[in-house]
Give the backbone structure.
Amino acid sequence: MRSIIAGAWKFEVLAAAVDVGLFKAVARREGGVASVEQLAATLDLDQPTLEDVVSVLVDLGLLVATEAGLTCGDQARRLLVDSSSPEYLGDYVAFCHRSFNPSWRDLAAVLRHGTPRTAEVESPYDSLYRSEDLAAAFLGGMESATGQLVEHLVREVDWNRYERVVDVGGATGDVLWGITRRHPHVDAVVFDLPAVEPHFQRRADGATDVGFVSGDVFVDPLPPADAMVVGHVLHNWDAEASRQILDAVRVALTPGGTVYVYDQMTTGSGTRRRPLSSLGMRVWTAGGAEYSVEQCLGWLEEAGFVDLAWQEVDPTGDVLVSATKPR
Ligand SMILES: C[S@@+](CC[C@H](N)C(=O)[O-])C[C@H]1O[C@@H](n2cnc3c(N)ncnc32)[C@H](O)[C@@H]1O
């Protein structure tokens, strides 16, 4: 029981260490070895507090105490040092600390009433995108979450069949950068909210293989395409909004075109459950939750799609559903 209670405190220690740049500072020292005194001086930190923080991080295996001094543990070196690495998790830690984890405090209210307090006021993206650096942390976090999924999509789908692919809610375009790297003939476009565009352009860094169309999927028509991707999007919305999104996709797809939907879907039989991920959506969004493969297939069928199929995406835990608009 006490270890469950302390779990939240341990995350705070990790988030604070990421916030002050502790792991990067250790890695930057000669030989990747640092003393507490050096770190306190370089980062201008309170040394007695830092000593406690370091002790917790050593217990967690994120720092290693050697005779020469402190070094980063394997996980910290791989996931928390190099911001340009596709695996970098520092942005995701910052997003969880500032936006996602505080919403979990509403869980008892959601349990009683079914929706979070903020639900009727706004979508989580309204508050997220009001702050430039919170938006950057969120979008960076999304990038670190999609690496293996992009590999799967590129490997399992024959993108040679398509000329134009639109990623609805595609954020900074990870999926499409992955597809166009292997299939340069594909005309690829991210459709996402206007606030995402500057972050997309920063990531693109002048490259033009992927374009960006800004808009709101509930208001603006989607750009036409013969394939569309809707990934980690529907779990942000309730069933009615999900139907609306899939209907907008059907309208924009050319006849014979295909939609690819991925999320941490469950199965109706209960063999795949994603309770923590689902609760996260319940507290962070207005009506979102992880949904079942069967529900997704039902929405697609109602929207008029045919040739429905699904597969698990190992090892991410996602399910990839595909469906075709009749000719
Ligand atoms: C959880 S992220 C998923 C990003 C990416 N598809 C992935 O798999 O990592 C959801 C995306 O939906 C976008 N989004 C939210 N509301 C939207 C709206 N009304 N219209 C278009 N995009 C929206 C967000 O900006 C965000 O990029």
